[in-house]
Amino acid sequence: MNLGRIPRPRGLRSRLTVWVATVLLVAAAVTLLFVYRDTGTQLRAEVDTDITGDAGQLAHSLPIHEAASPAALLSAAEASVRVQPYSEISTLLFVIVHGAGTASNHPELLGSEGGERIDTRAQLAQEHAFARVLVSPHVGFSTHDLPDVGAVRVYELRTGIGGVPVYVGAGEPLASVARAQHSVARALLLAAAITLGLALISSYLAGARVSAPLRRLAAVAARVDAGDLDPRMPIDRAGTDEVQVLADAFNHMLDRLADAFTAQREFVADASHELRTPLTVIRGQLELLAAQEHPDAAEVRRVERLVQAEISRVTRLVDDLLLLAHSERGNLLRPEPIELAAFVSELWDGVSLTAERRFELGTVPEATLTADPDRLAQALRNLARNAIEHTAEPDGLVRLEVQAIANDQVRFAVLDDGPGIPADERERIFERFHRVDASRSRTAGGAGLGLAIVRAIVDAHGGRVRAGAAPSGGALVELELPGLTLAPVRRRSVAPV
Length: 497
Description:
By secondary structure, this protein is an alpha+beta fold. It has ten helices and 13 strands. It has a five-stranded antiparallel beta sheet with strand order 2-1-5-4-3, with helices on both faces. Strands 7-9-10-12-11 form a five-stranded mixed beta sheet. Strand 1 and strand 2 form a beta hairpin. The radius of gyration is 52 Å and the shape is rod-shaped.
């Protein structure tokens, strides 16, 4: 176990609280540093202004006549500076008269025996060092440490009186600056602590509020993972936040998932039923034939024809199911340029030979279409076969119309004069195993996959299919496919027979 590793918060509330605390701490530290330094800078600027003024006033208080001797200047300086005795909260004043000495309102600083303070040797040594600095002129600003006082800001200026160099200086302790900075720091730290506490509580409550629907979402997802598709997330229609959008999308996903599972169960049940019927017929006929010790040749041939027919039905059903499976995987098509007029003409000629009906073909535009010729022919044959099954021979109408429409698309329309499709069934006829007339026998009506295959082929081409009513009163099924080019090409693609 790694004891030095800090455990990471796992819950949303904990992570949000930690992030808020981190951001606030960083912001508070930056603010504290900025305010602390800015406060010190401003107060030091005020100190510099004060000692500059004090030094200037002290310089103006000295005699300025030319006959003033260095001793007289020193005496006048002592009289001026001792009017303002030095303390830890007052201004240090000093005058250095070249050739005469130094005057200051801090006698101990210059080695005088005056004063009542009892200092240690270390303090005396530090004071003497500071005194040596004072008696050595340093024009401008400087900062020095003084015992019992701390840092002292000093300003010196040079002036000449009667030809005698005189240096006038003033100093002020920076203890007030440090105290002000510490006061500001304490106030900021207290405010930051209070703000951090309130922010942590608020972020924890906000995290709990935000994570509550997410926890409900996780609970619903867990039930769905266990196989229960009934639970849904509660949705507040008045809300517009991201959580409500997520809940709506999650519920929509569950609805589609439930529909997919229902469709899958129905598909498996219908496919099982479709396969069971011919297998039952085959088994029954074989058992009947096996029960006879010496079946005659006619009976054997009858059973053979019946078994062959049922095997053909099973083969077609399996082929259709495989085609639909390929369409779901997206590898259904092999598109190529098709010369539309020749393709449709040859296809319709082949369809017209399959039944006794009144077949009609409208005008076909001279154009090329980029599509899979085998799958397109299969879709149009399925539509024609569906129209043939719902019309009467020999004069039932089965018509194909081909028309170029906008956006480089082509429209195929197969219509008949049969009973038509009820309005409430026009969307469902493209579902797998769906029949408009449930009473029709499966032998006569097929397995109910023809129109589902048509929709799969059209969807794979990026087109659309819809059903409606024909002008003749029968059914109308339209296909719209993209990829039409009106310029003809030399290549001719013949529809498979």
